[in-house]
Design a protein that fits this description.
By secondary structure, the chain is of the alpha/beta class. Helix content is 48%, strand content 13%. It has 14 helices and ten strands.
């Protein structure tokens, strides 16, 4: 390839897996970063790089077909990366900037505050709940982006489908920190990105689809603890002393035992059933809400789970579901 057409490391590594058996005394074992993505023990790292380089070099020289397959894959990765970069630049410059602003202005209710670390972006399931969230939000720190239906499954979809998907584009533009290898949390417009969906199976599915997107294209958002899931209540219990909000069936049964006198239970089928003030108080107000932070503690296990549960191979997913899901209990399924 010409000098100005050279491949980047990410182009070559994308889609490739390697298994290396390495024994290091526990006292010397070090990794770089929380996700253990890089070996940090200096002596072991230099030896591993040297041995791997020599053996891989001979392998590629002796196996031309495999070498060409890897090279072609790397070139395709380079083309996809450059196409994505050009697409991002096209919306940041010139006439396309107006189109970007128009697309966002139709749905995104921006936060007015300039302290981006304190600003929060809520990705809300449905226009109805999105409208309620906009009414009672803290306009200085809370931005609302309603999502229409279920987003694309990025583990199955092609690069072209992902690049042209309107919902994912809106999320990318709203966060403003790039995509893929170019994603940089320092450029994010928000210190927290919060997924807010109904407390049902469909809502859980939307959460997983969004987490898959963030894992594949904005992973540092997860690694740096900036991605959260809101936990709206399933029930409200009204008594003579006021109203309580309950998150689970088990919690509801415990509360019932403590109530003396009459009470009224309401089950929320979705965010849209709540009044705007109820939605803010229970799910958005920092003083009362409960957020779950999405974390990545085992990179290898996360990669395996995403591939099995969200990929296009049916049998491994079916096997995992049969071994891990109890379909007789609604709450277990929701978990």
């Amino acid at each position: 390839m010409k000098k100005d057409q050279s491949l980047e490391g990410g182009d070559v590594r994308e889609g490739l897996s390697a298994v290396i058996s390495l024994k290091i005394p526990e006292a010397l074992l070090q990794f770089e970063g929380q996700t253990k993505g890089k070996l940090g023990t200096p002596e072991a790292r230099s030896i591993t790089e040297s041995v791997t380089y020599e053996h891989l070099k001979f392998f590629l020289e002796e196996n031309k077909e495999a070498a060409l397959t890897i090279l072609n894959k790397a070139v395709q990765s380079k083309m996809a990366r450059e196409a994505a970069r050009k697409a991002r630049e096209s919306v940041r410059k010139g006439g396309s900037k107006g189109n970007k602003e128009r697309v966002l202005s139709e749905k995104l209710a921006k936060a007015t505050g300039k302290n981006y670390e304190k600003n929060e972006l809520f990705l809300v399931e449905g226009d109805s709940a999105g409208g309620s969230a906009k009414l009672f939000r803290n306009r200085e720190t809370q931005a609302i982006l309603p999502l229409r239906g279920k987003v694309l499954n990025c583990e199955k979809a092609s690069q072209n489908d992902i690049a042209s998907n309107a919902e994912l584009k809106q999320i990318e533009y709203a966060i403003g920190a790039g995509l893929g290898a170019d994603f940089d949390t320092r450029e994010s417009n928000y210190g927290k990105v919060i997924i807010m969906t109904d407390a049902d199976v469909d809502g859980s599915h939307i959460q997983i689809l969004l987490i898959t997107f963030f894992y594949r294209f904005m992973r540092p958002l997860i690694e740096e603890g900036m991605l959260y899931i809101a936990t709206p209540p399933l029930f409200s219990v009204e008594t003579s002393k006021g109203k309580l909000y309950i998150a689970t069936n088990e919690e509801l049964e415990e509360v019932k035992k403590t109530i003396k006198g009459k009470y009224k239970v309401q089950r929320f089928k979705g965010l849209g059933e709540m009044n705007a003030d109820e939605l803010y108080e229970t799910t958005m107000d920092p003083n009362h809400r409960r957020l779950m932070r999405v974390t990545l503690t085992d990179a290898a296990l996360a990669e395996k789970r995403i591939h099995v549960l969200m990929g296009d191979q049916v049998e491994p997913r079916k096997e995992w579901i049969n071994e891990n899901v109890d379909f007789t209990l609604e709450d277990d399924f929701r978990k």
